[in-house]
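The step that takes the researchers longest sounds almost clerical: writing a folded protein down as plain text. Below is the pair of lines this work produces for a single protein:

——
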Amino acid sequence: MSMKVEEIKKQLDELGVEYDSKLNKEGLLELLEEHSASNEDVVEDIPVVPAKKYVVVEDFKDLKDNDFIYTKDDPYPREGNQNVTEERIQELSTIKNKRNRVLIREQD
């Protein structure tokens, strides 16, 4: 697969890798390969989309989703927020959250 310099730079930017803007294509590819390989080992930063389906049982404002308002019977997470960790699911499905109330439950 042949990538254009702009595509390589975009991927490096997404990975947060700093690079010299005058670097040639070969140098950029080397940087991308280095940082792509090192990021494969970073598991805790990768959001986990739940395989299970959840439903909102009480209205709430999701402070970790740009204050999105969920109302009772909404699916969780919403379509635009697929970056939900298992930890967040646990937090919302138990009383161990700021509201001290169960806010979501697994859908039947």
Remarks:
- The chain has a mean pLDDT of 85.
- The radius of gyration is 19 Å.
- Residues 2 and 75 are 40 Å apart (CA to CA).
- The longest strand covers residues 54-56.
